[in-house]
């Protein structure tokens, strides 16, 4: 087949002959002479047609063309342009009835008679519907060749709004609050965690019961999650119910009631929440990793309530923190599968009704972000456990906004890893270095995984593993040898890591809630939003030397070592530090 398709270079690789792979017959015919003769003739006859068709497909995909152009220009976060926000007023129509634009809500009883197409409404699901030729239903195929554009708006009070409309029936909307544990002193760093459990309760407009009943009747899902640099209130609902859920979500962010009973509930649950966190070994170690890597500053402040914080969870403290942080110029509203003008209109109406109409220039400035200071260090927790859990971390300078973002992410995919009992399959990383050199050769390694986490001004490159306790020292030497062996990276291995990374990016962004969170996080981290073409160009530009250089830079920092469980055989911190300082691949 390879000879038939030809050996000359081409922009388009020959497509796989998937039509030949039929269940139950492939193994019996693949080695037969008639099959090979038929395949050879088929490939010879269709060589020109296949290549022409493939070229036409690629020409319709504008994102690939733009990616090639961007790759030649050396794209990075610094070279991306900041978005331009369309300025919009904050107004509430006092003399009109804005709620006439709301969809009909059937919260009980029977709906009124539909004014739509009654012929379609009265048709059963198993009856075909005739579609007129040239109608929108039959002519949407061409619209998928181009990704819809992001639209940006900003209200006078500082609320930023971003929308991407993929014309889906269900919408995902997130209200991002630029607040988190890194912006707080240690005494109040747990407050975002308190509000995570106060989310979607009572506001000045709806009681907790009415809030829950409204979401239940709409079939909407809503949650809140907190991080070190942001808080996110988000919901999923049918497209037509976005105005209702948006109003409800903004009320919970800008004017939550924070009753004494609700705060008392959170205070009562605090010990149980702490116990659940302690039972999650990987989550607990991640918290310990941050607390040790950034000791007593910014990113080292815990997200979660500690035992000494329980008495501080009082209505007075919670309301004071809310008044300081929850303000409109600290918000970003991101919508996926919503109309831009409609979302801006309803955000403006909600802010007008809640009384948040002051221009952001009249509001007191937000405090500047304190720079994260990496310290490194060592923490060990001895517990009765049959395994030793080891988490190693090194600093990535400048984090998301630095020059190491793309090379480090490719390095992470190149090292890969996973669990020793993985069943494999496409995308499982069975050809990564940690699989081929660790998991496939050493039975005492239960799991080993490389990963990274990025923040606005710093980041961490980590390796998390679970091993038999007696082999802790041997594992560290093995990992150091793998790092040093990165001076030998084939072009095939590098391309495989790049392809896996780009595939992961595209597959994840197919989910609307992931796209919504990605847009909001990018704005918070850098004030910019890159698209898949730009990130694809960044990944394609990574070379073997870039991967080796980023590992050398990481290993120059003092390691952060977290050990949990059977830690008796883990070497001393100084020995680990000296081991990895000499583990960089030679120049």
Measured distance between first and last alpha carbons = 41 Å
Please bin the fraction of helical residues: 40-55%
Runs in which pLDDT lies below 50 for 5 or more consecutive residues are 1-40, 42-73, 134-144
Instruction: Give the beta-strand count.
Output: 13
Q: Count every helix, treating DSSP H or I runs of 4 or more residues as helices.
A: 20
**What can be said about the biggest beta sheet?**
7 strands, mixed
Structural class: alpha+beta
Radius of gyration, taken over Cα atoms and rounded to an integer in Å: 28 Å
Strand content: 5-15%
Strand order of the largest sheet: 1-2-3-7-4-6-5
The whole-number mean of residue pLDDT values reads 84
Question: Which oligomerization state do the chains in this entry correspond to?
Answer: single chain
Gross morphology is globular
Describe the structure.
By secondary structure, the chain is of the alpha+beta class. The protein is 40% helix and 15% strand. The protein has helices at 2-5, 26-29, 33-60, 62-73, 118-121, 191-196, 208-218, 242-254, 260-279, 281-293, 315-325, 340-354, 405-415, 433-439, 472-484, 491-508, 512-526, 532-540, 544-556, 573-581, and strands at residues 86-88, 151-155, 160-164, 170-177, 221-226, 231-238, 331-336, 377-382, 388-397, 417-419, 445-454, 458-467, 560-565. The strands form two sheets. A seven-stranded mixed beta sheet has the order 1-2-3-7-4-6-5, with helices on both faces. Strands 8-13-9-12-11-10 form a six-stranded mixed beta sheet, with helices on both faces. A hairpin with a 4-residue loop joins strand 5 and strand 6 (231-238). Residues 1-40, 42-73 and 134-144 have low confidence and may be disordered.
